[in-house]
Automatic annotation (TrEMBL):
The UniProt record lists the keyword Transferase: yes
Keywords: ATP-binding, Kinase, Nucleotide-binding, Transferase
Top-level taxon: Bacteria
Domain Protein kinase residue range list: 19-287
Alphabetical list of CDD domains matching this protein: STKc_PknB_like
Coiled-coil region: none
Organism: Chloracidobacterium validum
Protein name: SUMF1/EgtB/PvdO family nonheme iron enzyme
Keyword set includes Kinase: yes
Pfam families, per database record: FGE-sulfatase (PF03781), Pkinase (PF00069)
Length: 575
C-alpha cells in the first residue's frame, strides 16, 4: 500500500465522497475494517478495505477490479436475517484497493462470547448453530461458499426482546460456484493448500489439501464451531489427523445423539457429512424436538412441590444427561436374522394381548405378494374395531395444572366412535405398502418384524397419522379421523371405557386431531395452529395423572412412544 492510499485510510478521511472513517474496528493480513458514517444518510456502516495482493500491471488491476465488482454484486444479493448484508462496494486510490460496505452490527463476536463463557449452554449453542445454518444455506443456494467460518466471523446481536441473532459476516474470501461454461472464482487470489485463504484450524481437510470445495466445506466449519462452543475449545488434535473426543465424554449434559450429528459433520470425506446446511439445521431441530418432548413430559407431570415424579427422568433440581422415554423396555427394533415378515397362518389368528385379529392377506401384503384391495377385504381384515361412546356433559381441564391445562371448565362432548386400541404395526404396514408412505424408523425397513404386528405403531408424526386416516377413509368409503382432544379427555375420565385400552398406559402417548388452543378463561399463552396436541400420561403409580396434561408439538414430530388411534362420527363412519 503506497503513501497516497495510506493517507486515504486515516481516521476522518472520506472514502468516495460518501463514507467518513470514524474508528478502526480491526485489521489483519487481509484488510482493515472501519466504522464509518454515510455523510448523506447519517447512518453507520462497517467498511472493509481489502489489502491482499495488488497487481502492478494496470490491465491486471482492472481485470481484478472488474471481477471483484461482479462478485461483490453477487454477495450484495444475499438477503437473509442471519447474514450481515453487503450494501456497497468500490475501490480506493491509485492502487484501486477494493472495499465493501456492510451493515454495522452492535454486539459481540461469537469468539468474545466463547472466551467469556468457556463451555456455553447447550440451548445457546444449538440456537446459534441453527441460525448460522439458515444463513449459510441461503448463500449456498446462490453458489457462494464462505470458506472462512470461525467464531470471529459470527456477530451476536441482542434484539430488543433480549433474544440473540447470529449474523455471519466477512464473505471477503467467499468462493463463487462457476456459472455455465465458466470457472469458479474467489474474491482473493487462491493458492492450494495451507496457504490458501481461510483460517487453517477451521479448514476442512479438502481445503487444507487444496482439493475442490463446495458447501460441505462450510458444513465442516459449522460443526467444528458447535464442537468448540460446547467443549470450550477445539479438539486437542486436528480433526484431519484423528477423531475428536465425543462431546458427551466432555460434558455429562450432552446426549450421545449430538455426538453422532457432530461426528458426521466432521467427517474427513465431504460425502460423509450432512449434504447441506439445511440438512444439518433439520438434524439439530429434530434433536431439539426430542429434548423438548422430555422437558414437556417432565413439566406436564411436575406436582406443586416442583419435583418431577415421572419415571425415567431425574428431578428437575438434579437432572444430568437427558434421556428420552422409551417404549416399555426400549424402542421397537427389527429382530435379528429375519429377512422379511414371516407368513401368518391361513385363517384367523387370535392374539391374546390386545385382542387383535389378522387375516392371511396381511402376510402376503407385507411379504410382497398379491393382496386383496377391495374395500370389503380391507374393512374386514385391517380396519380398527370401533366402539360407540355416548358423549355428554363433562368437566375438562384442571385448576391445578400448568398454564396449558387450566382452568377447569364444563362442556358437552358429542357422541363419537373410537378404536379400542391404538393403530397397530400390522394395520399401518398395509397403508405403507399400498401408498409407499415412509415407514417408521423403528421398523428398520419397509415392514415391521412379524413379532410386532399386533403392537401399537409408534414413531409416527401427526402428518403420518392424518395421512393414514385419509387413506383408510378412501379405502373403506367411511370417514375416519384422529380422536379429538376433548374426546380423549372425556374418555380418559370415564369408568366404563367400552373396552378402549392403552389410553392411560404409561408406555404410550397418542396424537389428537386438534391444534393448540386456549381453554375458556385460560391465559399466559396464545393459541398456535401450527402445533398439534398429543395426550397421555407418564406416571405409572397414579392412574389419574396425565388425564388433563397437554403436549404441543409440530406435526412432523416423532417419538418412539407416540402413536395414534382413529375415530369417527356415528352418522358417517364406524362399525
Amino acid at each position: 500500500m503506497n503513501v497516497e492510499t495510506a493517507n486515504l485510510l486515516e481516521l476522518g478521511a472520506v472514502i468516495d465522497g460518501k463514507y467518513r472513517l470514524d474508528a478502526l474496528l480491526g485489521q489483519g493480513g487481509m484488510g482493515k475494517v472501519f466504522r464509518v458514517t454515510h455523510i448523506q444518510l447519517k447512518k453507520t456502516f462497517a467498511l472493509k478495505v481489502m489489502l491482499f495482493d495488488v497487481a502492478r500491471d494496470a490491465d491486471e488491476r482492472q481485470n481484478r477490479l472488474a471481477r471483484f465488482r461482479r462478485e461483490a454484486e453477487v454477495l450484495a444479493r444475499i438477503s437473509h436475517p442471519n447474514i450481515v448484508m453487503v450494501t456497497d462496494f468500490g475501490a480506493i486510490g491509485e492502487e484501486q484497493l477494493p472495499y465493501i460496505v456492510m451493515e454495522f452490527i452492535e454486539g459481540e463476536t461469537l469468539r468474545d462470547r466463547c472466551r467469556e463463557s468457556g463451555q456455553v449452554p447447550l440451548d445457546f449453542a444449538l440456537e446459534v448453530t441453527r441460525q448460522i445454518c439458515a444463513g449459510l444455506h441461503t448463500a449456498h443456494t446462490q453458489g457462494i461458499v464462505h470458506r472462512d467460518l470461525k467464531p470471529e466471523n459470527v456477530m451476536l446481536q441482542t434484539l430488543p426482546d433480549g433474544s440473540i441473532m447470529a449474523r455471519v459476516l466477512d464473505f471477503g474470501i467467499a468462493k463463487l460456484a462457476p456459472e455455465a461454461g465458466g470457472k469458479s472464482e474467489t474474491l482473493t487470489r487462491e493458492s492450494p493448500g495451507i496457504g490458501s485463504p481461510g483460517t487453517p484450524k477451521y479448514m476442512a481437510p479438502e481445503q487444507i489439501l487444496g482439493q475442490p470445495i463446495d458447501p460441505r466445506t462450510d458444513i465442516f466449519a459449522i460443526n467444528l464451531m458447535l464442537y468448540e462452543m460446547l467443549a470450550g475449545a477445539l479438539p486437542s488434535v486436528p480433526v484431519i489427523l484423528a477423531e475428536p473426543k465425543p462431546i458427551s465424554k466432555i460434558r455429562s449434559d450432552i446426549p450421545v445423539a449430538l455426538d453422532e450429528i457432530i461426528g458426521r459433520g466432521l467427517s474427513k470425506l465431504p460425502e460423509q457429512r450432512q449434504s447441506s446446511a439445511l440438512d444439518l439445521k433439520r438434524e439439530l431441530e429434530a434433536f431439539e424436538r426430542n429434548l423438548t418432548l422430555e422437558a414437556a413430559l417432565r413439566d406436564r407431570t411436575t406436582p406443586p412441590s416442583g419435583v418431577s415424579t415421572t419415571p425415567g427422568f431425574s428431578p428437575v433440581t438434579g437432572m444430568t444427561s437427558p434421556v428420552l422415554p422409551t417404549l416399555q423396555s426400549g424402542p421397537i427394533t427389527p429382530s435379528s436374522g429375519i429377512g422379511g415378515v414371516l407368513p401368518i397362518a391361513v385363517g384367523l389368528i387370535a392374539v391374546a394381548a390386545g385382542g387383535w385379529f389378522f387375516y392371511p392377506q396381511i402376510s402376503t401384503a407385507l411379504g410382497g405378494g398379491a393382496s386383496r384391495t377391495s374395500a370389503t377385504a380391507l374393512s374386514a381384515a385391517l380396519t380398527p374395531k370401533l366402539v360407540l361412546l355416548p358423549g355428554g356433559e363433562t368437566i375438562l381441564g384442571t385448576n391445578r395444572g400448568d398454564k396449558l391445562s387450566v382452568p377447569e371448565f364444563k362442556t358437552t362432548v358429542l357422541p363419537f366412535r373410537v378404536s379400542q386400541t391404538l393403530v397397530t404395526n400390522g394395520q399401518y404396514a398395509e397403508f405403507v405398502k399400498r401408498t409407499k408412505h415412509r415407514a417408521p424408523a423403528a421398523w428398520g425397513g419397509s415392514s415391521p418384524p412379524a413379532s410386532d404386528l399386533d403392537k401399537p405403531v409408534t414413531g409416527v408424526s401427526w402428518d403420518d397419522a392424518d395421512a393414514y386416516c385419509q387413506w383408510l377413509s378412501k379405502e373403506t368409503g367411511l370417514r375416519y379421523r384422529l380422536i379429538k382432544e376433548f374426546e380423549w379427555e372425556y374418555l380418559a375420565r370415564q369408568r366404563d371405557r367400552k373396552g378402549v385400552v392403552d389410553l392411560l398406559d404409561a408406555g404410550f402417548l397418542e396424537w389428537t386431531a386438534d391444534s393448540l388452543t386456549v381453554y375458556p378463561g385460560g391465559k399466559g399463552f396464545t393459541a398456535n395452529p401450527e402445533l398439534r396436541i398429543f395426550r397421555g400420561r407418564d406416571d405409572r403409580e397414579n392412574p389419574n395423572e396425565g388425564v388433563t396434561f397437554r403436549f404441543p408439538q409440530k406435526p412432523d414430530f416423532t417419538n418412539n412412544r407416540l402413536g395414534f388411534r382413529v375415530a369417527s362420527d356415528p352418522k358417517v363412519g364406524g362399525e
